[in-house]
Design brief:
The protein is of the alpha/beta class. It has two domains: 203 residues, 3-Layer(aba) Sandwich (Rossmann fold), CATH 3.40.50.720; 99 residues, Alpha-Beta Complex (UDP-galactose 4-epimerase, domain 1). The protein has eleven helices and 13 strands. The strands form four sheets. The chain has a seven-stranded parallel beta sheet, with helices on both faces. α6 links the parallel β5 and β6. It is globular. It binds uridine-5'-diphosphate. Uridine-5'-diphosphate binds next to α7 and β8. The site of uridine-5'-diphosphate has 13 residues, from α7 and β8.
C-alpha cells in the first residue's frame, strides 16, 4: 500500500489519479485539508473506491504514526506542504512548522516502522537566483525565500536519514506546473490563487479580477519573465517512474522536472487567448518581489534515467486547465 500525503491538493491529487489508473490503486491519502479540498478526495474515491482517506496533520506525530500502525505501507509519496512564496516571507514560522517539522514527524514514523522509501516533491525554488541556465541538478542551491529554505532543509534531512537509517528518497524538483485532468474531474484549486495560468483563466469568468502582468521591462525577448511550464499529468507520470526506480534500485537521487521549453508571461497569455477564443483584458503592474527573469530546467537526467518523456504541449495544458476552470467556476457559483 502507498501513502500519499497532501493528495487533496493540486499535484498530489493528479498523482493519486495517475497511480489509480495505472494499477497502483491501493492508496491511503493523508491530508489536513488546510489548503486541499474534501471534494477532490471524494472525486478520487469515486474513481478509485480502494482509496482510504485519513484527515490528519503531520504536525501531530501521533496522527501520522497511527497510519503506519494501521496500514501496511510500502512507500510514501510526500506532497503535503504549504507552498506560497509570498506567505512564507510574511509568516516563516508557519512554513518551518508545517513543512519541516511535519516532514520530520513523517520521516521518523517511517523509520520507526521500517518504511524506507519516499518520493518527495521538492522545487526549483531550492536553486534561488539562477547562476546559469538551463538549471541542472548540480546547480548551487541558495533559496531566496523561506518556502525554498524549507524544501532545501528537507532535502538535507533526507540525506542524513539515508546515511543514518538507510531511508532512500527521490526528490523531484518541479519547475512551473500547469494543466489539469483531461476529463476535468480535478484541477488546480487554490484560494487565494497566485499562479499565472489559473489567474488568466479566472479573469475570463470574473470581470472584477482583471489579469495583471507583473512587470514588462525585464531583460527578455518581450520584457516579461520566462518560465519552464510542465504539465501536471506529465509530472504525475514522473512520480510513478520515480517510485518504480526507487523500488528497483533502492537509491537516493534527485531529478529536475521541466521541459526546457521556456515561455514568457505574454506568450502564455496569448496561448490562453487562443484556447479560450476570447480577447482577455489585462494590465501591466510592477514587478513581483523575488521573481527571477528566467527559470529553465535541464531535465535530461529525468529523461535518461527515469525514462520520463513529457508529452503535453503548453497549449494542451492550458486547454485542460480552461475546461477545469469552467467546472470550478460553476461549482463555486453554485455554493455561493
Ligand atoms: N505572473 C503574472 N501575473 C499573475 C501571476 C503570475 O504576471 O497573476 C507571472 C509571475 O511574475 C512569473 C510567472 O507569471 O513571472 C509565473 O508565476 P507563477 O506564480 O505562476 O509561478 P512561479 O514562477 O512564481 O513559481
Amino acid at each position: 500500500m502507498i501513502l500519499i500525503t497532501g493528495a487533496a491538493g493540486y499535484i498530489g491529487s493528479h498523482c493519486a489519479l495517475n497511480f489509480s489508473e495505472n494499477n497502483i490503486d491501493d492508496i491511503v491519502i493523508f491530508d489536513n485539508l488546510s489548503t486541499g479540498h474534501i471534494e477532490t478526495v471524494e472525486k478520487l474515491q469515486k474513481i478509485n473506491p480502494k482509496i482510504k482517506f485519513i484527515k490528519g496533520d503531520l504536525k501531530n506525530k501521533n496522527e501520522i504514526s497511527d497510519i503506519f500502525r494501521k496500514y501496511k505501507i510500502d512507500s510514501v509519496i510526500h506532497f503535503a506542504a504549504l507552498s506560497q512564496v509570498g506567505q512564507s516571507v510574511v509568516n516563516p514560522s508557519l512554513y518551518y512548522l508545517n513543512n519541516v517539522i511535519g516532514t520530520i514527524n513523517l520521516l521518523n514514523s517511517m523509520v520507526e516502522n521500517n518504511v524506507l522509501k519516499i518520493v518527495f516533491s521538492s522545487t526549483a525554488a531550492t536553486y534561488g537566483e539562477p547562476k546559469y541556465t538551463p538549471i541542472d541538478e548540480n546547480h548551487p542551491q541558495n533559496p531566496i525565500n523561506p518556502y525554498g529554505n524549507t524544501k532545501l532543509m528537507i532535502e538535507k534531512i533526507m540525506d542524513d536519514y539515508d546515511l543514518a537509517y538507510n531511508l532512500k528518497s527521490i526528490r523531484l524538483r518541479y519547475f512551473n506546473v500547469i494543466g489539469a485532468d483531461e476529463k476535468a474531474r480535478i484541477g488546480e484549486w487554490h484560494n487565494p490563487e497566485t499562479h499565472l495560468v489559473p489567474n488568466i483563466l479566472k479573469s475570463v469568468f470574473n470581470n472584477s479580477s482583471e489579469f495583471k502582468i507583473y512587470g514588462d521591462d525585464y531583460d527578455t525577448k518581450d520584457g516579461t519573465c520566462i518560465r519552464d511550464y510542465v504539465d501536471v499529468l506529465d509530472l504525475a507520470d514522473a512520480h510513478r517512474l520515480a517510485l518504480e526506480y526507487l523500488n528497483k534500485n533502492n537509491k537516493t537521487d534527485v531529478f529536475n522536472l521541466g521541459t526546457q521549453g521556456g515561455q514568457s508571461v505574454k506568450e502564455i497569455f496569448n496561448i490562453s487567448q487562443d484556447v479560450t477564443k476570447q480577447k482577455i483584458s489585462y494590465k501591466i503592474v510592477g514587478k513581483r518581489m523575488g521573481d527571477p527573469k528566467i527559470l529553465l530546467a535541464n531535465s535530461k537526467k529525468a529523461k535518461d534515467i527515469l525514462k520520463w518523456h513529457p508529452k503535453k504541449t503548453v497549449h494542451d495544458s492550458i486547454k485542460n486547465a480552461f475546461e477545469w476552470e469552467k467546472v470550478l467556476n460553476d461549482k463555486l457559483k453554485a455554493s455561493n
